[in-house]
Amino acid sequence: MLNTSCKWSMAAQMVLRGGGFGLFSYLKAYQFRLQSSYNFSIEDGTRTNLRALIMSRGMLKSFENRPDVKFEPRVEYVRE
Fold first, then answer.
1. Per the domain annotation, does 1 fall within a domain?
2. Number of domains in the chain
3. Which residues have CB under 8 Å from 58's CB, separation 6+?
4. Residue 34 and residue 13 in contact, taking contact as beta carbons nearer than 8 Å
5. pLDDT tens for residues 19-66?
6. 39 found inside a domain
7. Phi/psi at 28 (nearest 5 deg)?
8. Looking at residue 1, what is its pLDDT?
C-alpha cells in the first residue's frame, strides 16, 4: 500500500482588544497580538478538523502574557 500522508502547517494571527466599562474601562486601552503555528500530518483515509482557540496561560502570568493560542486537531476516519 502506498503511503500518501501529507504534512501541513497552520498559522494563526489574531488581534485581541479589551472591552471594559466603568471600573474596568482601562481595559479598552489593551491590545494583544497573537501568532502561533501548528504542524500536523493527514494520513490517507482520514479527515482532519483543526481549531485554533484563544486560551489563558493562567492567573500567575502578567496580564499582557496571559493570552495564548491552542490548536485542537480532530481526526476522523473516512470510509471509501
1. no
2. 1
3. 66
4. yes
5. 888 888 888 888 888 999 999 988 888 888 999 998 888 877 777 778
6. yes
7. -65, -20
8. 43
